[in-house]
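Thread: quick sanity check before group meeting

JM: Hey all, I'm pulling together slides for Thursday and realized we never actually wrote out the predicted structure for the chain we discussed last week. Dropping the sequence here so it's in one place. If anyone has concerns about the input, flag it before I start.
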Amino acid sequence: SATTTSSSSSSRYGAKKQPSRCGHGKGAEVRVVEREKRERGSFITGDGSGVMCMWRLGEHTRDGNGTSNNNNSSNNNIAINIEPEFTFAFAEFMSGITALASMDAYSSSLSSSENAPTFITAVGFESGDVAVHAYKPGGFRERVFGLEEDERFRKSPISSLDWVFVDATDELYLAVGNRNGDLYFCLLSSSDGDMTLERKENLMLLNSVGSSSNSNSSKKSNALTSNSTCWMNFTSIRRQNTFPLMVCSCKGEVTKLAFDVERFIDHGNRPFSACSIVGLKAERATPDFSGHKKLGFSLELFKAAKEEDNDDDSPSFRIVTHGLDRAICFYDVFEESEDGYKYRLKGQISTLGGFIYDIDHHVVPGIGDWTIFACGDGTLRKMENVAPHSKVPHDVTTFDKALKTEILFRADKQRKITSCRFYIDREHVTRCVVVGLDDGTVGMMRVEKEDGDDKLTREEKKMRFFPQKHRGAVMQIEIVPSLEKMNNTINEESVIVTLSETGELWYWRRLPGFFDDKSDAPEPYLDISAAIREGEDDGGERASRLKYKDVTISRFGYTRSASAFVVGYSNGYLSCFENHNAILKFRWEDTTSHSTDITDIKCDDNGKYVSNTSVAVATSSSDGCVFVRSHAKEYASSEFTGKISHVVPRARQSVTRLEWCKDEKEDTCLACANADGLVRIYTVGDVHSSSEVSLRAVFRGHRGRVRALRNYASHSKTESERGILFSGGDDQTIRIADVNDFRRSPDMGNQCAMYEKEK
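JM (edit): ok, ran it. Output follows.
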């Protein structure tokens, strides 16, 4: 622990209680991290209790031994040694730290001929106070001084700080922005080793609500006025022998700032030999800054690397903004003259605005394929004809210019779309979409006209909600055959089955004619969860599946070849029910394979993926277990007993989703998405080779739980597009990956990790 003392100038801002050791206290909330610009490998942190710490990254090796002599060749992890330099606790009345700004260069009497630099850091607090902390290694006393209070300013938490060095006048300013919308500049001066921070009357942009207008100077400089509070994010970059480039965001708009100067002497190569700063000029964003659809964003300004082949057209600086629309925009800044700039939107990266809860895919052979995504920001998005092999060879983290999405529907009242499925209206031979929301509402909308050429009108593509809704979020939607028979024949009309978070499993009817108002609104005509709870097994005794009230249905699957439901429960049980004209007949049950809640069930019919089978059912649970139950073709489907035929290696974390697919060699693959962000692909043998389960590929890239997984099939049906998978998760991105990509093989795990890091 470094021994530090506070000088007499630190009496007001001095330590409330010097920590016994360096570092933040136990349970402290670290709110802000700032890179120390004077020393590479150092950074500063501030917490909610007003404690600031400086840290150094010590030497480290790949085996994690640091500078010690302990050689452990078997440990290949990278460990970083962090060494605390100092800790300072500010006065209690200043409350939590909200902003930090380290200084990259400063020449004053504090600096000496020694090599050790002086670390000067500006600190902003939740109370609205601003302080400057100076520290020099080697026993140098800490110095802390602050900004005196001003009646014109309504105290507001500090939101942004930045040091601005003006080469033309050899002056150093601290730019301060607060949540009230005030932005002002303070001059840092030094005399006899003592530093002071003073507000400059001519360099203020005050909010009309939080400031008074008694001062003539404040009236003159009040270039930005607002009747509502706003957050200002300030950034600047130094330009040698001239004035710095400065931009800030105010209420989500880019504002260009410039010093208004008065020049005294103008000598040829030295345009600013002598000048005086008389004010601050602020200019609102120009149309060149268009890019964000919603206001409110943070920004960063940095120098752009010069291109050797085209120096004249390459930008001098670049601005990066991040908005409430969850998009990242890049702007090039071209220096047209000494005081003039030209701004141009370079590019944009758009995220999907929330967790990806569900994905569905539909193909019309020879015409086109559509993919829809249910997003946590309440939007239902559609993308057409992805053709991954021609546009994206490996991964797509977000949809940018190469892959644009169309918003089909946006929910209101902050509701989320948690599930979605395509539904074919056989009466009009058109595609519709069924969605489920987090409040239990189920709705359906058209996405194309009957003739397929003209666009839908606003009224035609309006979402129509069903009058009855679930008591919890709709977690799963499936399109299955109707349970009822018409004229003693099987009804080929497909119906909707929905599962809610509370375990309600409903069959819906009256779907044909819904859009033409030829029938009443759809209603659930069979509560499968209630039928299972009240049902009996073959022996006439009440089944044990839902005898406890806290046990609910967590997932279900339907196999058409066996006309049966496979239902998973929150306690890990599995059961199968056969449909007999809207009467569910119990077939088999498994109470031992899974120990926790069932997370997904995927059924394969008539050997589409698993060869030589009539039925194949894959089940997963949050305990990491995955089992495959397959039934050979030579046996009747009524003899399917749910016996386990394949066991997938257990994962360390929860398996969230499953999906069947085939690779380019027609081998059966089972994709298993995990809570750790990985998607593992296993090759599964046919029904007669139960031991053939091997890890085929690993998809990396997601930074969070994978919530959705879907197999992709192109309308062109080319062999090169087999094994394409969509995955979406908590990192608000969709990834498209290929099972046949050699870099995804398990034996290239380290190379894959390095590839992702470099990309």
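AS: nice. The chain is about 5% helix and 45% strand. The chain has a mean pLDDT of 76.
JM: adding both to the slides.
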